Amino acid sequence: MSTLPPCPKCNSEYTYQDGDQLVCPECAHEWQAGDGTEAADESRVIKDSVGNALQDGDSVTVIKDLKVKGSSLVVKVGTKVKNIRLVDGDHDIDCKIDGIGAMKLKSEFVRKV
User: Fold this and answer.
1) H-assigned helices in the chain
2) pLDDT tens, residue by residue, 26-46
């Protein structure tokens, strides 16, 4: 029986060691043995344009005019966005803007209120 831990992404028991890394053959996830990579991913800190840490439920202000892709609308400087939700990806803020609707924003274009 293998003493290697199961895959942290898909919980597959068929992990194997490749050099100093562990590999899952089912989902192709690679990680260092015992380095706590899963915990580091969950504790990723998203910061606004001036370096303040953002959290779910915060209110932010837009610091630059942002064109809305696929329409003629523009999110103006100073627009206040309430109750943001942090998500993974390039656009790491999910929110609703009055007059525009649901939108994703990059944290580099907002400032915490």
Assistant:
1) 37-42
2) 998 888 876 554 454 556 799
pLDDT, tens digit (0-9, with 9 covering 90-100), for 64-104: 999 999 999 999 999 999 999 999 889 999 999 999 999 99
DSSP, res 6: P
113 Cβ contact partners less than 8 Å away, ≥ 6 residues apart: 58, 59, 60, 61, 80
Residues in the chain: 113
19: Cβ contacts below 8 Å, ≥ 6 apart:
none
Question: 8 CB contacts (<8 Å, ≥6 apart)?
Answer: 29, 31, 37, 38
Instruction: Say if CB 94 and CB 87 are below 8 A apart.
Output: yes
pTM of the model: 0.63
Burial per residue of 50-65, b for 16 or more beta-carbon CB atoms within 10 angstroms, e otherwise: eeeebeeebebebbee
Rounded to an integer, what is the distance from CA 39 to the centroid of its chain?
A: 14
Nearest by Cα to 89 from 67, 107, 110, 64: 107
